[in-house]
Amino acid sequence: xxxxxxxxxxxxxxxxxxxxxxxxxxxxxxxxxxxxxxxxxxxxxxxxxxxxxxxxxxxxxxxxxxxxxxxxxxxxxxxxxxxxxxxxxxxxxxxxxxxxxxxxxxxxxxxxxxxxxxxxxxxxxxxxxxxxxxxxxxxxxxxxxxxxxxxxxxxxxxxxxxxxxxxxxxxxxxxxxxxxxxxxxxxxxxxxxxxxxxxxxxxxxxxxxxxxxxxxxxxxxxxxxxxxxxxxxxxxxxxxxxxxxxxxxxxxxxxxxxxxxxxxxxxxxxxxxxxxxxxxxxxxxxxxxxxxxxxxxxxxxxxxx
Length: 305
Description:
The chain is an alpha/beta fold. It contains 11 helices and 13 strands. The two termini are 36 Å apart.
């Protein structure tokens, strides 16, 4: 049995498809209101802030994948993410279940320096501090030998379907709607974006590779990084039309955040848009050389096609 904790999001759904396609039909989907992806999926309703419910959700699982996402709300993150991580670690330790944690980069310094698996945690806001806290909780449990686990870390998303990110909502969703794109902070800095189906396929591969445990992995991205201006150029080729865009400066988020909650919640992430974002996934590509990464050109064509 392989179990997806937080199964309703785009990462969890794609992960479920990949597990079924490549590894096992014996899959359990866990969330507050799970829905089947395949007829054979086992559904379990659970609130992962409840220790007993989490233990029941994990029991009998060979591998558990923690892919839970929460709305961009710092207070909610502080209340829920540490409790979820503690409960999942305890449940996996109790039942001898391997744990694969889907992580992000909010705890990394927002500088142009390349980010590798050894990059230190230097969060500059509340959400970054929460992510550093829960990653450290798991690293400590791994070091103590209480749980066999792997951390799969990904940069900002872009992708099809239900994918949510600044890039999707401000750039590609607006292109699809025939609206002017809004580029956060700078159109001239290169971005490391991960195609969400690639992230899920890579995480399934890590989870089913015994020697991948006990480590942190940067999940694969297209190494031929593009700026937002270049991405919009690709979009013009795909759509066959001129696409206009405006750059939203930091001041726009600072002012807008006073009146629109979600804008204020993303403010701590914006320094990383001022310079190049170099997320280095060479460790993964060296270990898994046959893994095919979706190029920006392929991804943008799928989103807008």
